[in-house]
TrEMBL record:
Any one Gene Ontology molecular-function term assigned to this protein's record: transaminase activity
Name of the protein in question: Aminotransferase class I/II-fold pyridoxal phosphate-dependent enzyme
Organism in which the protein naturally occurs: Pelomicrobium methylotrophicum
Keywords: Aminotransferase, Pyridoxal phosphate, Transferase
Recorded GO CC terms: cytoplasm
InterPro entries the record matches: Cys/Met-Metab_PyrdxlP-dep_enz, Cys_met_metab_PP, PyrdxlP-dep_Trfase, PyrdxlP-dep_Trfase_major, PyrdxlP-dep_Trfase_small
Length: 389
């Protein structure tokens, strides 16, 4: 049975492994920086791309890295995938390779992505434009002005807004532009952007794909003709992860499907418990039928993820007290690990924005963001209840 026909959990375990002469059930760690050849003809065949083979680790031509990329490609049903030393390495290489004619960032985005688009890339002459979700009707004119890449996250951080991937892809493709979706929050298990029309999928593998808060890595998946120019940037910017990191990421991916099922179930239980709590004004979770994006989420996601955002009925100070009172949830600015984490966006991810800009983006002082981990959900709900009391 080819990996393309297998279901997600099976692909997580088996896809991408190379036959091993010693019978290892997974591709072992090749922590070598270079690889030997029998003769010059053999060496040239690999350098010229006439046969696949290992050559030099920074080029990505290392069995541990290629095996991981084959697994990642299978998880997104993509032709190929590239791994990077971080999510930002993947995003910056994508922008350098495909953003020269202009990039439109849609909706809220990760802080590093926003900095690249609003400050750093313009200093290199890149034309960039940032549109909020409520400015979606400006996307067509931004593309008519020449932008050739649309980039967005869905669900977004921290509001968990959902952007219609199919709709944006149709609009962009009609104008000859590419669409890249940062699928970090949903993961391959809950959302398949390529099947919905996106051209490239982007991940911070530091989050759910790594899943244990112990590796920093990034991923792009898509058609080879789109990834090849990015591969050239990755090679000379030196953005390939260490083989040890690639090996750990491959190990993590073997449990991705089961981990995400539990993240989804725990987050759903917490979102439902919080939505009944008298001290909470609003719970933002794509899996709650009363959430404004529920129907769209239900059409393009197969699970609703482990992130839950809520607004307490109180001030920013009150939200801070709740965050500080939590014991099982740790206060830390990341997400996607086995351990539950909490942040108040106004003091962390969105601290650098002015109050006016935060309010334009719908990020309030009383907002709290949870990354729901794999603990017993009853312990997590009890922790939230004691912190809110
Ligand atoms: C964390 C994150 C990134 C950046 O990833 P790093 O691995 O920290 O470089 C990009 N996008 C999203 C949605 C993220 O959560």
């Amino acid at each position: 049975m080819s990996a393309q026909n297998q279901r997600m959990a099976t692909r997580c375990v088996h896809a991408g492994k190379f036959p091993d002469p010693h019978g290892s059930p997974f591709t072992p760690l090749y922590d070598a920086t270079t690889f030997e050849f029998d003769n010059t003809a053999d060496l040239l065949a690999v350098i010229d791309g006439k046969r696949p083979g290992s050559l030099y680790t920074r080029y990505g031509l290392n069995p541990t890295i290629r095996s991981l990329e084959a697994k990642l490609a299978a998880l997104d049903q993509a032709e190929d995938a590239l791994v990077f030393s971080s999510g930002m390495a993947a995003i910056s290489a994508l922008f350098l390779a495909h953003g020269r004619d202009g990039i439109v960032g849609l909706g809220d985005a990760y802080g590093g992505t926003l900095e690249l688009l609003s400050h750093q890339l313009p200093t290199l002459g890149f034309k960039t434009r940032l549109l909020l979700l409520q400015e979606m009707e400006l996307l067509a004119s931004a593309l008519d002005e020449g932008a050739r890449l649309v980039f967005f996250e869905t669900p977004t951080n921290p509001r968990l807004d959902i952007i219609d991937i199919r709709k944006v892809a149709d609009l962009a493709h009609a104008r000859g532009a590419l669409v890249a979706v940062d699928n970090t929050f949903a993961t391959q298990v809950n959302q398949q952007p390529l099947a919905l029309g996106a051209d490239v999928v982007v991940y911070s593998a530091t989050k759910y794909l790594g899943g244990h808060s112990d590796i920093t890595a990034g991923v792009l998946a898509g058609a080879r003709r789109l990834l090849d120019p990015v591969r050239a940037w990755r090679k000379n910017l030196g953005q390939v992860p260490a083989p040890t990191t690639a090996h750990l990421l491959a190990r993590s991916l073997r449990t991705l499907a089961v981990r995400m099922q539990r993240h989804n179930a725990n987050a759903q239980a917490i979102a439902e418990a919080l939505s009944r709590h008298p001290r909470i004004r609003k719970v933002r979770y794509p899996g709650l039928p009363e959430f404004e994006y529920y129907e769209l989420a239900a059409t393009q996601m197969s699970g609703f993820g482990g992130m839950v955002t809520f607004e307490i009925d109180g001030s920013g100070e009150d939200a801070r007290t709740v965050v500080d009172n939590l014991k099982v949830f740790s206060l830390a600015p990341s997400l996607g690990g086995v351990e539950s984490l909490v942040t108040q966006p106004v003091t962390t991810s969105h601290r650098d924005l002015s109050p006016a800009e935060r309010s334009r983006r719908g990020i309030t002082d009383s907002m709290v963001r949870l990354s729901v981990g794999l603990e017993d959900p009853s312990d997590l709900i009890e922790d939230l209840e004691q912190a809110l009391a």
